[in-house]
Prior knowledge:
Blueprint: H1 4-15, H2 22-36, E1 43-47, H3 48-66, H4 79-95, H5 103-113, H6 115-133, E2 139-140, E3 143-144, E4 157-161, H7 162-170, H8 172-188, H9 196-205, H10 217-223, E5 241-245, H11 249-252, E6 260-264, H12 265-271, H13 278-297, H14 303-314, H15 316-325
Antiparallel strand pairs: 1-4, 2-3, 5-6
Helix pairs in contact: 2-3, 2-7, 2-8, 3-4, 3-6, 4-6, 5-6, 8-9, 10-13, 13-14
Amino acid sequence: xxxxxxxxxxxxxxxxxxxxxxxxxxxxxxxxxxxxxxxxxxxxxxxxxxxxxxxxxxxxxxxxxxxxxxxxxxxxxxxxxxxxxxxxxxxxxxxxxxxxxxxxxxxxxxxxxxxxxxxxxxxxxxxxxxxxxxxxxxxxxxxxxxxxxxxxxxxxxxxxxxxxxxxxxxxxxxxxxxxxxxxxxxxxxxxxxxxxxxxxxxxxxxxxxxxxxxxxxxxxxxxxxxxxxxxxxxxxxxxxxxxxxxxxxxxxxxxxxxxxxxxxxxxxxxxxxxxxxxxxxxxxxxxxxxxxxxxxxxxxxxxxxxxxxxxxxxxxxxxxxxxxxx
Length: 326
């Protein structure tokens, strides 16, 4: 028979409401902390500061790579996400370039170089956890369950049995899978972007790497041999040549010929993750029709060409653009 604590913990994850993703971040933080804690006492006190830092990590990574909406109120962003987005903007302002990096990789850099901004984000996150998350997590259907952990409103720490932390540690893989699955389900109610669960899972599993787009050059050159920039309309020198996703990669999380064009590196940098205009989508649709025609004339086939043809038939350019706008 499964431990009552473990059943309750999973029940919170499975039955939480879809207002925002705070409970998922809280659950994940506790499981992660269980892997880090070494304590011989019967009970363990966990500082909200350490939980808040993990909240910042989770929301930083999901935001800086995929800009995922984390709450049902589309007018007012959840407070913790607001704090993290401000910290991301402060970081970009400091390094003078919009280059996405995992929080774990640059955490110490942030704490040293923009310590004031980080501490402000951390303190505000702790305040929000005290008001909205720390005590609510132990409530199921309006009933408080101190079997999960003990917490009094306003405290800086929660108190949890060491044996319960060990249960989280022993089952961490299953719990991470469950949390990520539920987190993805919640996000699907707020976000129109594709591959939501994959985006949530990839943050935990490995580095979020951008694949090389060089394999697409042979196809792009067939339609655009002069290498004219899609954005400014001028010819591109070799040293300035870049391949760009018209609909942002952060939304699609995919590299597809139908969405790739030649641009100047400088035009690409200035564009960043801006949603394309309707005129850009019309240009892209025309380019794709021209490209598929020339590929057929040259009797070029294969998976990439088949995907391009399917995108034209299904009107992916317009459909994904509408989804990205929303």
